Amino acid sequence: MKLHIGIDDTDSPEGMCTTYLGALLYREISKIAEPLDLPKLIRLNPNVPYKTRGNGAVAMSFDAKEEDIPKIKNLVLEIVKELSDFSHQNTNPGVVFIEGDVPKKLERFAYQAIWEHLDITEAENIAEELNAEVHKFRLGRGIIGALAAIGHPLKVFTYELLAYRTREFWGTVRKVSKESVFAVDYLTYPFTYDNVDLSKGSVLITPHGKDPVLVGIRGIDKNKVMWAFENIIFEEPIDFFQIYKTNQNTDDHLRFKKIGELKPLESAIVRGKVIKKYWEKGRHVFFEICDESGTLRVAAFEPTKGFRKYVRMLIEGDEIIAAGGVKEFNGVLTLNLEKFYPIKLAEKITYEKPKCPKCKGTMKSKGKYLKCKKCGYKMKKVLIPKRISRELKRKIYEVPPDARKHLSRPLVLPTAEDKILDVLKLKK
Fold first, then answer.
1. 92 and which of 141, 208, 253, 395 could share a cystine (Cβ 3.0–4.6 Å)?
2. Contact 72/64 with Cβ under 8 angstroms?
3. What is the DSSP string of 181-241?
4. Which of 9-18, 170-179, 360-369 has the highest mean pLDDT?
5. What pTM did the predictor assign?
6. H or E stretch covering 352
7. Where is each OB domain found (predicted)?
């Protein structure tokens, strides 16, 4: 009998991690039943306000004997109850069990949980309709992610190997050899990626919170991910590790929308014309675009660092495709820019004074006239237009690795450009 298990919302900013709990359960249940695949790590809507870190839910599927199913369910509920961080008021775990085949309708719900802001009632309704067994702790908001994690088909996926710390090290600085991480990245990139930020010389695989994760190594090749893990030098003990199949770095969250259709707490790709060139406030860079349905403020926030340089190159009249999360910022609907693609660049013109027609000297403005500095020749002021070459190219610009959301697909990965180029019908 197939048994599908979904779990979410067991952690908090103060500790625990749903992947840690899921990995423990996967190890224990595998002693009782046969795993059908690796466990799944499904990243949900990155814009919801009550998420902890990456807004990830986990799911796993087993071929279990009918008499073992009650034992497995009890084990899951006991572990969730024991390890969830109930000290935090926003920890509201949810567990879902589905027996047999996963209903096709749950796939649609999974994408809704990535694209939209769902509430518990919507999850309860589909669970009842599909005869899913639901267990809520406190408010039970985690049933949304638990259902979505079971339902996500992972037609496109990546891998993440998560190694976990022994308990005595939780909450302390992670001890991993920086040099070994850079060496491994050099040998495995791009089959593993976002291990380091070369521009800053920093390591990205180690989180900074109080959770049990020591490192997370991402990649598109499971064997390369494992090789990378085996060749990194760890300076503290590892409790255990688990490889997850995941929708991370797939751009799952992006859908094309008209500006007038946008709502807060969703993500989108929009196409528009720049109608107000950049301005800056608190190291954030803003500009405005429009299409036939409305206008939109776009922001490259301070953490995107060097990415803002390319945003500053945009001028009024440029046509672009922009992708990112939609939020209210100081009361204004704003696209938090993740990547953009210049479709058509406006002409940038400057005006210069001509050379002196008599001696080729430099002319100086004198009211309505020009006067040659060298020979004194005077003439009526005439300025010559000159076209300035634009530095922006017809390519996708993306934020740096340490500012990238879990779902955003880096350009180094295969088909990374598809969703933006689909808007142009120029899919490669």
1. 141
2. yes
3. HHHHHHHHTTTEESSEETTTTEE-SS--SSSSEEEEEEES-HHHHHHHHHHSPBSS-EEEE
4. 170-179
5. 0.91
6. strand 348-352
7. 270-343
